Target: GntR family transcriptional regulator
Amino acid sequence: MLQLGQIDRSDDKPPYRQIAGMLRDAISTGQLIAGERLPSEAALIDHFGVARMTVRQAVQDLRAEGLVISEHGRGVFVRPAPPIRRLASDRFARRHRASGKAAFTVEAEKSGYSPQVDNITVTREKPNPTVAERLRLTPDDEVVVRSRRYLADGRPVETATSYIPATFAQGTKIEQTDTGPGGIYARLEDAGHILDRFTEEVGARMPTPEERRALQLATGVPVLTVVRTAYDTNDVAVEVCDTVKVASAYLLEYDFSAR
Amino acid sequence: MLQLGQIDRSDDKPPYRQIAGMLRDAISTGQLIAGERLPSEAALIDHFGVARMTVRQAVQDLRAEGLVISEHGRGVFVRPAPPIRRLASDRFARRHRASGKAAFTVEAEKSGYSPQVDNITVTREKPNPTVAERLRLTPDDEVVVRSRRYLADGRPVETATSYIPATFAQGTKIEQTDTGPGGIYARLEDAGHILDRFTEEVGARMPTPEERRALQLATGVPVLTVVRTAYDTNDVAVEVCDTVKVASAYLLEYDFSAR
DNA sequence: CAGTGGTCTAGACCACACC
DNA sequence: GTGTGGTCTAGACCACTGA
Model:
């Protein structure tokens, strides 16, 4: 049974923060382990002798920190850490593509989870200014826009949207739902755009409500945003890929020279 | 004056979500711009005909998303986007170091903000298991631990903790608060450890309460965690640097080959 | 069914900002 | 001072879970 202290009414820290602090300590010291249920609101009200809103505010703080998740009708639980995918920067190397597999599949086999892709859409649009600039297009050029969602062991972990200049995608499988073995990059190379290098821009923020839905995100879990641009051997930008990843499920690895 | 709709009581979306949605729309459509004040709680209560806790819960949602910040006694404001530092992966290149400047200073001059470092502490400790593994040390070896906080135009943007094997730091300025021109890396190279490459591991999460204090973080702003390991030309790990960055203030750029 | 968290009401007192 | 958000109380009804 979990042992908790009492509120110090003379403390300037408000009661709800004191309660949040005690629960946080219980979690960080291992008195409450991942997946375990916290005392119910009723139990906390009894123990601390406060109103319901006070304990709810404490729990609310912990949720915003991503420490706990609450499940309607069941209870509040210490958030279990999901398995973490380490993404190495060689994940788009040609040797993987040569095997006919997409980067996400290769990664899945290495790490031992079952990969899945859904919600694939393919459209043709005018690029937004950011994409246009990266692809060095005018706003009047067209791009093929490919969106999809990636799942690992059935759980959404990432959404991705690729933008490919229509002139490069024209008449290739890039315009179809199934791009064939090796994915977009293999088709671009088939078309003579031999890939040379990528740049990635990494940031993080809280998800929008739509992203929370699409990625089934608990409160208190941010997203990593990664915008990748692919260049061919003529230094032509051939694709921009905008991805939103569940932050708790990823570690991105990069190598670079000291010279 | 801001125009807002009314709550639809027959909607299954609860009133507080409807209110949050309308405010969110007002922000995303530009009816409320960065830095502008939202209607006061009293005004929202009047307008929507709900209890105070209902409008507070709506605002709470927006705070957790990082869309607004509330200031006690002043109001709730659309969160202004802070200037974003783009960190290129060549920021530790030797040519910068040669000029006698630390990476943070070089970055500051390029981007035009005033750099500052404070809270510098230097201790000698046994490494924790993670650091020990990265530095290929035994738990009995010692490391010099250097912590500091970086500020841009007076605002905290990052905390960093470096771990250097004591055998490499011994007798150098690395053990002192002021490491001299070019910083730790210059001193390691003075000592014959010519730097060859770095690896970085990037993740994101919500800050701990201590981090929120140290970085003066508003609610709804995650942190980027970057763990960098430096290797010398003998492939010896000579430093691990653990950094926590305000996510809204950074974009990390990396380049890598397609081969 | 009982137990859980989700939403809401209608008040209260407080601390802070600004005039 | 007035107006703002921060904290707290003591209820109410609802929706979901699981025995």
